[in-house]
Write a structure and sequence with these properties.
single chain, alpha/beta, D-Maltodextrin-Binding Protein, domain 2, 2 domains, nine-stranded mixed sheet, globular, Bug_dom1, Tripartite tricarboxylate transporter substrate binding protein BugD, signal, BUG
Length: 324
């Protein structure tokens, strides 16, 4: 009798209290982890979205930066967190590329998370220090080929967007540059502006204001059409390098086992945030746009992650770049 009562109580608790908890969620601040240093492009995207989602959810979303190992440390932290909706991850394309780049990960890329939705796809820009000699992309490519051992290329570490863009660029021109890894694009950009390194490829969210302010020089965008916030910067194809196209997509994840009700609530909040006029405007200022409602869903993010793993695996394997 006691056992039957206990079993019934457990079922009622799981159904009644569980659903009530999901309905009331969130009742305290939520942490959204950015697996890169503060001040970088993914950090910028996260803080804009988190602020708007906080207003909708009625609780503050606190952004926490846990950089290192190409974003895998922060992703691993979220994968091991309690699946209660209070620890989230906003990650970019390296969520997919790390699956090939790293021989061993502290999480299961496809199976270790619940998917909330896509956020945005950000164009990349090939840039250099403001006083760098080449005037346009063709001259830049010629210069790199003639001085490959002298030209320094900054990136935010293995697996970072800037690293992937550089891999693709060097593959296209069949020339390697001397790479200088940093612990994030924030410090990398600081050194580029300070003329400590020569060149970099990074997201418009991190380069647009620097380009407009004349602090760095832009050679091309990695898009099929010109970026509205940088109308004077040609696409790589226009500048003479067809096929050099890459965008950095961002998505929000929760630990595996987070209730479907909480995931649904987070996805709905994300969709509202991406329509927030302030978010739309700030994204436009940074050279990007929010995704549609159809893409800000668990299904769209899972499909994107799966397809991007398949897309980048052969590129990474051909480059022979791996990390432990």
């Amino acid at each position: 009798m006691l056992k039957s009562f206990a079993a019934a109580a457990a079922v009622l608790a799981a159904i009644g209290f569980g659903s009530a908890s999901a309905a009331d969620y969130p009742t305290r601040p939520v942490t959204m982890i950015v697996p890169f240093a503060a001040g970088g492009p993914t950090d910028t995207v996260t803080r804009l979205v988190a602020e708007s989602m906080s207003k909708d959810l009625g609780q503050q979303i606190v952004v926490e930066n846990i950089g290192g190992a190409g974003g895998t440390l922060g992703a691993g932290r979220v994968a091991k967190s309690e699946p209660d909706g209070y620890t989230l991850l906003l990650h970019h394309i390296s969520m997919a590329t790390s699956a090939t780049l790293y021989r061993k990960l502290p999480y299961d890329t496809l199976g270790g998370f619940e998917y909330v939705g896509l956020v945005t796809e950000v164009p990349m820009t090939l840039v250099a220090r403001s006083d760098f000699e080449p005037k346009d992309l063709k001259a830049f490519i010629d210069y790199v080929k003639a001085n490959k051992d002298k030209v320094t290329y900054a990136n935010a570490g293995v697996g970072a967007a800037s690293h992937l863009c550089g891999l693709l660029f060097m593959s296209k021109i069949e020339t390697q540059m001397t790479t200088v890894p940093y612990k994030g694009t924030g410090p990398a950009m600081t050194d580029l502006v300070g003329k400590q390194v020569d060149t970099m490829c990074d997201q418009t969210t991190n380069t647009t204001n620097q380009i407009k302010g004349g602090k760095i020089k832009a050679y091309a965008t990695t898009t099929t059409t010109r970026v509205s916030s940088l109308p004077d910067v040609p696409t790589a194809a226009e500048a003479g390098l067809p096929g050099f196209e890459v965008s950095i997509w961002h998505g929000i994840y929760a630990p595996k086992g987070t209730s479907p009700e909480i995931v649904k609530k987070l996805s709905a909040s994300l969709q509202k945030a991406l329509k927030d006029p302030l978010v739309v405007k700030r994204f436009a200022d940074l050279g990007t746009t929010p995704v549609s409602d159809a893409d800000a869903t668990p299904e769209a993010l899972k499909a994107k992650l799966t397809s991007e793993i398949d897309r980048w695996a052969p590129v990474i394997k051909a480059a022979g770049v791996y990390a432990d």
